[in-house]
Design a protein that fits this description.
single chain, 105 residues, mainly alpha, 4 helices
Length: 105
């Protein structure tokens, strides 16, 4: 995982930072060679994350999108790329933190 996209510890981030980090981790997988089936799941997850990446969405929307991202990434399967797998693991950690915080931020 490259240092320029190290966005920090999810537990230390506010909701807007988490939403931005979620999208950043998924966007970082765009140019990587990934299994085509898994890539479709990642594309859907990135689209859900993009909906809330600017940090202005209401908390219930952020929670819903983060939950969708978790389900999509858990369904992606083997990515066949270690860097992408690292980004997906980081995105899952961020998305799970958002879901755990619920609608209360």
């Amino acid at each position: 995982m490259s240092d320029e996209l190290d966005v920090g510890d999810p537990a230390e981030m506010n909701r807007a930072e988490l939403a931005a980090a979620l999208h950043a981790h998924l966007a970082a997988t765009e140019g990587l060679p990934i299994d085509p089936t898994a890539n479709r799941w990642l594309g859907e997850a990135q689209a859900a994350a993009a909906d809330v990446a600017d940090g202005t969405a209401p908390d219930p929307v952020v929670t819903k999108r983060a939950s969708q991202v978790v389900r999509l990434l858990e369904s992606a399967g083997d990515l066949d790329n270690a860097e992408a797998a690292g980004r997906v693991d980081a995105a899952l950690a961020v998305a799970r933190e958002l879901v755990a915080r619920g609608d209360d931020g």
